[in-house]
Amino acid sequence: MKKEYIIYKLSETIKSSCKIENELFTQFNVKRGLRNEDGSGVLVGLTKIGNVVGYERMPEGGLKAIPGKLFYRGLDVEDIVHGLIADKRFGFEEVAYLLLSGNLPDKEELGAFLELINENMPLEQKTTMNILDLEGQNIMNILARSVLEMYTFDPNPDDTSRDNLMRQSIQLISKFPTIIAYAYNIFRHSTQGRSLHIRHPKENLSIAENFLFMLKKDYTELEARTLDLLLVLQAEHGGGNNSTFTVRVTSSTGTDTYSAIAAGIGSLKGPLHGGANLQVVDMFNHLKENIGDWKSVKEIDKYFNCMLRKEVYDKSGLIYGIGHAVYTISDPRAILLKELARDLAKEKGREEEFAFLELLEDRAIETFSNFKGNKSGKRVSSNVDFYSGFVYEMIGLPQEIYTPLFAMSRIVGWTAHRIEELNFEGKRIIRPAYKNVLEERPYVPINERI
Ligand SMILES: CC(=O)SCCNC(=O)CCNC(=O)[C@H](O)C(C)(C)COP(=O)(O)OP(=O)(O)OC[C@H]1O[C@@H](n2cnc3c(N)ncnc32)[C@H](O)[C@@H]1OP(=O)(O)O
Ligand SMILES: O=C([O-])CC(=O)C(=O)O
User: For ligand 2, is residue 77 a contact (CB within 6 Å)?
Assistant: First the structure.
């Protein structure tokens, strides 16, 4: 048998060997996607880090959808963002301090923390050379590989004591911007023939400023402040989001920090999770080309219906940037990002595109609800990824780094959750169960197989 054919043959067998009938989930009371019948997530842990609120439990049973709220260590993210805007301050480092420690820093603590971050931003020479070697590959994959490589430079990589976990967390938060900026510049050099710049991070700059400096040298105050707010908004989302849960699951085995974080990066890359920010921009560009009248509700609705019927665009049946496992009425981050996008669009003369995106948001929600009818009772709103790509684009950032930027922010939540996972008294390896639904059968010797 030809080697190429065996792949085809094996792939064909999957059609039946991987088929699991939907009814079996109900029959065995299995929570598909770790979700209860009402769509809420199955409770699998306790945390004191982030709180994602999308509904209330009614005393008589059932859920009541409410406008979404997000809390970092008990503080409302909207208050944090508005406080930072009012003070005209960079806030991502402060949020990292809050999420890692549980408390906001005072001025002295923040100063020392900023110094520590700055000191840890440069990469090992070998890591830079290895990123150079990986020219042009997906930046999320380069990030994961560079993180795994950090293990080899760490004098104490497997030590899971609190001090060591904190040291590793701060190093990861500090080095992500450098890895991403270098990886992009090398990508740009090898795919677009642009000059290659490897800029050393500067002292006394915030993470957002230093990232923009390493990426493109010149940037405006507005660009740096906008990036900082995006980093603040994506830093944490409870223990149940797929990438954080992945980090918690891997951490529960006692594995090293770099292995757990690399797993989280792999999860975030997916188009249903952090990778959706890239998908939204791709979908937006597609809609700009395929919808003639950007103000026509009728034309937009018709196109979205075709998308939901898997007839056009990527034929997945999905409208990206819409829907969320917890939020139903609104994602508070999407509301804040929409305001940011509106202001930036005004400043950059891109109001027509913003108006189109806003109308798409409205029509996607409405079309989805009409398409599903009352069958599932599922309500959707836009999520954090709906406006983030448009904002990144307006501040001159390239598409290849949209999902890596999400990781550059979420590394804070991942490390905070890893520390929590390894430091509570009743901790256990996370090990749920799968019900096997295949009957047992006798072993057949190779000569008797037909
Ligand atoms: C940072 C983040 O991760 S935010 C999320 C980013 N992801 C996206 O924007 C991708 C598009 N959205 C989605 O795929 C989903 O809404 C998710 C994965 C985010 C959340 O999904 P859930 O809340 O679990 O929705 P659930 O899986 O219960 O789906 C309910 C039904 O609505 C459908 N649905 C949910 N969202 C969408 C969507 N955006 N477009 C089309 N259909 C959708 C599902 O396909 C499912 O249909 P089915 O019952 O016929 O199988
Ligand atoms: O909570 C989720 O499932 C996804 C999400 O919005 C995030 O991780 O920011």
Answer: no
Q: How far is the CA of 93 from the centre of ligand 1 (A)?
A: 32
Q: Encode pLDDT of 209-250 as tens digits.
A: 999 999 999 999 999 999 999 999 999 999 999 999 999 999
| CATH dotted code for 92-267+398-421 | 1.10.580.10
Q: Whose CA is closest to atom 9 on ligand 2? A: 237
Q: Which residue's structure tokens are 């030590």?
A: 159
Q: CATH assignment of 276-393? A: 1.10.230.10
CA distance 97 to 41: 28
Domain spans in the chain, listed from the N-terminal domain onward? 92-267+398-421, 276-393
Task: Give yes or no for residue 403 CB within 6 A of ligand 2.
Answer: no
Q: Which amino acid is at 418?
A: R
This model of the complex carries an ipTM of 0.98
Q: What is the total residue count of the chain?
A: 450
Q: Examine the residue annotation and report whether 87 is marked as an active-site residue of this protein.
A: no
Whether this prediction's pTM lies above 0.90 is answered by: yes
Options 324, 331, 343, 417, the catalytic residue: 324
Instruction: List the one residue out of 51, 101, 116 whose CA is nearest residue 420.
Output: 101
- 376-to-38, 42, 301 alpha-carbon distances in Å: 10, 18, 20
**Catalytic status, residue 385:** yes
Q: Whose CA is nearest to atom 31 of ligand 1?
A: 378
Side-chain half-sphere CA neighbours of 215 within 13 A: 24
